[in-house]
């Protein structure tokens, strides 16, 4: 039986393992850490449970598809619910908005709370849907680095959308042309952060992202985001996939122009197929030292990172939901701090995720588990100890003011995750959450492909390669790899 070696057990690596196992490979996953999941971890602080990394779940059919491929019923492994409302938005002027799951209801609420005409809101969501449906089969489900992609009939759909894709303008400029209300523009601009980019630099193409959340929907898996990885590992093991933890890969072994296996401290492992779910930069710098690296690709500007405070709050806030956004006064200045000054704004936008709103067991009675995140630059030698301390004071002061309650006395337990720890724990180069940013119009084409053109049998999946970061795109990267790899002999 042909063998496949997967480097890393992030969500992309797990999904790739499942797809290759279904194609008849004997699959072994090598993981540096003592457990699976990559950024998709969970932990407990006292009586509070936290998802350490991703908190938003969209396109659940991409997970369901993995179970269906294996002939399994998805609901027997994990279940999820559609969120309503999706997010509760708060602005410094005291206004707030609940983003309801139904697009028409969301548009009506936007007109009621912000004065933005509901017809205009519905039109922009319809446009987002049209662009996504016209381009996703080409730009997300297939490799952009193989000729047969451009010979597909799907390209005709994509070409029909070119004039509306916003390639010649920025995301912010495109939104500002449509809406005069700065709060709603800010709401639309924030979707650039879904792949670690700056709406004032990124192309208007990113305005197709709201379709995922506001038309298809946002979801919550029972047991938290970690339950996705947990259920997929269970499936993988049932398919015969072997997981070897605490075993870092030290080298991808090649013979001529072909990958033939990997080496760890425990020995060598022969394989006809090698898939790296590790960030593409350390993959080349550490595992392929004898091969020429694609320097232009590796040196693309990095995405943003995150500073996360995990707080066990011994109080309930009924005005909050699962997803909550507390906006800054000056969004442009905030992104200028991240991408130009390489630091954190004195008034950052704050995201608060509270899974105990849906899973009561995630916090003690009368308490809530707050995942409090600020978008920050990737690591470039900043004084993170100082930034963590100063930003904590800023965030506590901001949330206290906007919630009309001093939250400091209610923080019972605390843990912090910063770009240095993100890189240390997940090998994400410089702590960048999404690999390279999408701050130029050609970014999608400049991401590393899902294969190596000079080393046969070597493939790549995960957030640092095509099509990008986040749960759905990592799953799609595994799908692209699965479609490329020939069936086992």
Report on the architecture of this protein.
- The protein has 489 residues and is an alpha/beta fold.
- The chain folds into 2 domains: 3-40 and 225-299 and 441-484, 3-Layer(bba) Sandwich (FAD/NAD(P)-binding domain), CATH 3.50.50; 82-221 and 302-426, Polyamine Oxidase, Chain A, domain 2 (Alpha-Beta Complex), CATH 3.90.660.
- Helix content is 34%, strand content 20%.
- The protein is built from 17 helices and 20 strands.
- The chain has helices at residues 11-22, 61-69, 103-114, 118-139, 147-150, 154-159, 171-178, 182-189, 210-216, 226-238, 280-287, 295-298, 331-339, 384-403, 419-426, 443-446, 471-484, and strands at 3-7, 26-30, 42-45, 48-51, 57-58, 80-82, 87-90, 96-99, 218-221, 242-244, 249-255, 258-264, 267-270, 273-276, 305-313, 323-326, 350-353, 368-376, 411-417, 458-460.
- The strands form 5 sheets. The chain has a 7-stranded mixed sheet with strand order 8-7-16-17-18-15-19. The protein has a 5-stranded parallel sheet with strand order 10-2-1-14-20, with helices on one face.
- A hairpin with a 2-residue loop joins β11 and β12 (258-264).
- α1 (11-22) packs parallel to α10 and α4 packs across α9 (210-216).
Percent helix, as a range, is 25-40%
The tally of domains stands at: 2
Say what oligomer this is.
Answer: single chain
Mean pLDDT: 95
Low-confidence stretches: none
CATH topology descriptor of the largest domain: Polyamine Oxidase, Chain A, domain 2
- Number of DSSP strands? 20
Number of helices: 17
Question: Strand pairing plus helix content: what structural class?
Answer: alpha/beta
How much beta, percentage-wise?
15-25%
The major beta sheet can be summarized as: 7 strands, mixed
Write down the CATH class of the largest domain.
Answer: Alpha Beta
């Amino acid at each position: 039986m042909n063998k496949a070696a997967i480097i890393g057990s992030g969500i992309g690596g797990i999904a790739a393992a499942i797809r290759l196992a279904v194609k008849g490979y004997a699959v072994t996953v090598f993981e540096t850490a003592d457990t699976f999941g990559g950024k998709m971890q969970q932990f407990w602080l006292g009586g509070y449970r936290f998802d350490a990394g991703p908190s938003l779940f969209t396109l659940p059919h991409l997970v369901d598809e993995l179970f269906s491929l294996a002939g399994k019923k998805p609901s027997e492994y994990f279940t999820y619910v559609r969120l309503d409302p999706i997010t509760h938005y708060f602005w410094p002027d005291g206004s707030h908005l609940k983003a309801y799951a139904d697009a028409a209801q969301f548009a009506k609420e936007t007109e009621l709370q912000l004065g933005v005409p509901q017809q205009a809101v519905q039109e922009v969501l319809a446009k987002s849907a049209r662009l996504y449906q016209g381009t996703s089969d080409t730009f997300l489900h297939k490799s952009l680095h193989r000729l047969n992609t451009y010979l597909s009939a799907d390209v005709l759909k994509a070409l029909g959308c070119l004039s509306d894709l916003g390639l010649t303008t920025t995301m912010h400029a495109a939104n500002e042309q449509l809406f005069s209300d700065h709060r709603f523009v800010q709401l639309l601009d924030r979707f650039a952060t879904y792949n670690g980019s700056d709406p004032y630099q990124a192309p208007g193409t990113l305005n197709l992202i709201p379709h995922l959340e506001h038309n298809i929907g946002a979801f919550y898996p029972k047991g938290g985001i970690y339950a996705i990885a947990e259920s997929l590992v269970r499936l993988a093991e049932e398919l015969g996939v072997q997981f070897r933890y605490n075993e870092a890969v030290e080298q991808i072994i090649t013979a001529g122009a072909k990958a033939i296996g990997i080496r760890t401290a425990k020995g060598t492992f022969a394989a006809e197929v090698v898939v790296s779910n590790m960030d593409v930069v350390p993959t080349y710098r550490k595992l392929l030292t004898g091969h020429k690296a694609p320097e232009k690709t590796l040196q693309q500007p990095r995405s943003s990172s995150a500073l996360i405070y995990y707080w066990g709050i011994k109080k309930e806030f009924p005005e909050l939901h699962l997803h909550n956004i507390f906006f800054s006064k000056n969004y442009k200045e905030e992104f200028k701090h991240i991408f130009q000054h390489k630091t954190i704004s004195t008034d950052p936008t704050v995201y608060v995720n509270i899974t105990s709103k849906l899973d009561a067991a995630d916090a003690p009675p009368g308490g809530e588990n707050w995942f409090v995140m600020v978008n920050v630059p990737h690591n470039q030698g900043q004084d993170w100890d100082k930034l963590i301390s100063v930003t904590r004071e800023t965030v506590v002061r901001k949330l206290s003011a906007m919630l009309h309650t001093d939250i400091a006395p209610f923080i019972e337990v605390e843990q912090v995750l910063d770009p240095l720890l993100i890189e240390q724990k997940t090998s994400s180069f410089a702590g960048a959450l999404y690999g390279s940013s999408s701050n130029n119009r050609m970014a999608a084409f400049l991401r590393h492909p899902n294969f190596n053109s000079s080393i046969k049998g070597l493939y790549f999946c995960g957030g640092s390669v095509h099509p990008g970061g986040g749960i759905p795109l990592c799953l799609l990267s595994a799908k692209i790899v699965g479609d490329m790899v020939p069936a086992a002999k």
